[in-house]
Amino acid sequence: MKRNHVFFIFIGLLFAVIGMYFGAQRLAPEPAQASAVDRLLAQTLPDAHGKMHTLSVWRGKPMIVNFWATWCAPCVQEMPELSALQTEIAPRGIQLLGIGIDSADNIAAFASKYRITYPLFTAGVSATELTRAFGNQAGGLPYTVLIGRDGQVKKTYLGRLKIDELRADLSLM
User: Fold this and answer.
1) For a tag site, which of 85, 89, 113, 118 has the least CB within 10 Å?
2) Cα(13)–Cα(120) distance, integer angstroms
3) Which tens digits make up the pLDDT trace of 88-97?
């Protein structure tokens, strides 16, 4: 009888490991589409104050693009670190952009409450399609993309960032 318990525990653990493996594979970002950066830079979006901006002004510049929402707890948690990072990397010519998948009112209220040192744009639900172009098939947030000076996607991150990993990856730019 005791042997059967060990067998079933082993089988249960085996299936748990297999499930975690396939779950991680399904949620891992896919490679970005070749047109993703062009689609991003073709956007004209309102900032947190409603002023329209053409994102093409950042063509040819290294960027960190962070897709986020005010209702996303990990997004909000990482923003102070991203804000400090923008201050740190600005002298190197690297620009951080926040693209909110949220309403203009929510982003405006958020921007007035917190001091974010990088531009926040409102893209609403339409930004979900843009994140998919960057490989975010799961649609999870936050989703962050490193884009090099050459306009190529260098790396993507699904979920809350590890700032030290991001800092190290900036050498890819």
Assistant:
1) 113
2) 44
3) 999 999 999 9
